[in-house]
Amino acid sequence: MGRKRSSSSSTSTVSGGKGESLVWSEAMDTILINAFVHQQDIGNRVNGTFTTHAYENIVNELKVAFPDKPVDKAKVMNRMKYIKKGFGSCYDLFRNLSGFSWSPVTNMWSADDPGVWDKLIESHPEAANWMNKPIMHYKSLEKLYGQDRANGENAETPSEIRQRLAQQSNDTEGEGISAIDRMVAHNEATLEDLNNENTGSPDGNKRHKFTREEVQAEIMKGIQGVA
């Protein structure tokens, strides 16, 4: 038997950051996502990484549109991280699936045969969430992150990079994690998660000393998954 679809409206969420919390509206999300697309289109995303200048432009655009809102870079990054997570779970589930089509009218996935939903939910119970839940600006998000999802399913996260590098060698004097942290500081646009993590180690002063090129190469492996 086919499952009944009911209407669903999007809700705003609170974004953290410095100072006052920010409640995002649908109108704010629209400008936010469009601003990211624009920055990508004009070349302010390099090797999958949004530049510092891109974030400055995005924050300024939001401040002009919503002068009464406490928008800053941290809130922009947190909000896009939240939006990207929702898009990613939806995109990974439906891409290359037959029997489903994306509706720009309802902003939801639909199927002509209700039984298709039953079969999908049987194998992937989480799919039930997307029967009634719209995801706004899907095509814009696909433009931003679709290729990354398609190419980087097995890409390492910043945390995984950090852990792997820290475990490679413990018999040589070196800087270890602290060296990686300093390198990440120069890549703040995409590696904010790594900066925010504290993973102290009792043997942290006995690590392989990575060259700048080596650390940068390792960091770049994980960029596509978090940009």
Automatic annotation (TrEMBL):
- Record keywords: DNA-binding
Which superkingdom is the protein from?
Eukaryota
Residue segments, region Disordered: 189-213
Q: Known InterPro entries for this protein?
A: Myb/SANT-like_dom
Q: Name one GO molecular function term.
A: DNA binding
The keyword Ligase appears for this protein: no
Myb/SANT-like domain location: 24-119
Q: Does the keyword Nuclease apply?
A: no
Q: What is this protein called?
A: Myb/SANT-like DNA-binding domain protein
